[in-house]
Amino acid sequence: MVQEKLRSDLAILPIGTAIKLTGLTARQIRYYEANDLIKVARSQSKQRLFSLDDLQQLMEIKALMNTEHNLEQVRQLLARSKGTVVHSDSQLRHTLQDEILLASPFNRNSANYPSTFKGQN
What is the pTM of this model? Predict the structure, then answer.
């Protein structure tokens, strides 16, 4: 008989169970969801459903928030632990501006680019 692997990504637990297992309040969980720290599955009737992976992530968020981290720091730390990169709006704008300048005929390395504009953003 082949033993089935436990599916920790299967969202089947209601918010009441998540509250009991994590020690968080419903308000905290909704706040973390509203601030995109966690993505929660929904049933057809729009009820929040949590997986074991979701509960683990909620516990990580709780631990980070208890160590005086703010939302943005928690978001960065969670992204880093998942191996994804999160950039702020200003970082994205700066990167986009650099890419546009490099692609334009007036890029910073061009001899025709006026020296008075070099280094200005």
Answer: 0.62
The residue type found at 106 is F
Is the pLDDT confidence value at 113 over 90?
A: no
Domain count, the chain: 1
Q: What is the CATH number of the domain that holds 51?
A: 1.10.1660.10
Give the integer Cα–Cα distance in Å for 41 and 48.
6
Give the pair of three-digit tokens for residue 97. 């501006």
Model confidence at 107, pLDDT cuts 50, 70, 90, reads low
Provide the residue count of the chain. 121
Q: How confident is the model over 55-68, as pLDDT tens digits?
A: 999 999 999 999 88
Other CB atoms within a 10 A radius of the CB of residue 36 amount to: 11
> For 50, phi and psi rounded to 5 degrees?
-115, 145
What six digits make up the tokens of 48? 């929040």
Please classify residue 114 by burial: count the beta carbons closer than 10 Å to its beta carbon, then call 0-12 exposed, 13-18 middle and 19+ buried. Answer: exposed
Q: What is the DSSP string of 71-86?
A: HHHHHHHHHHHHT---
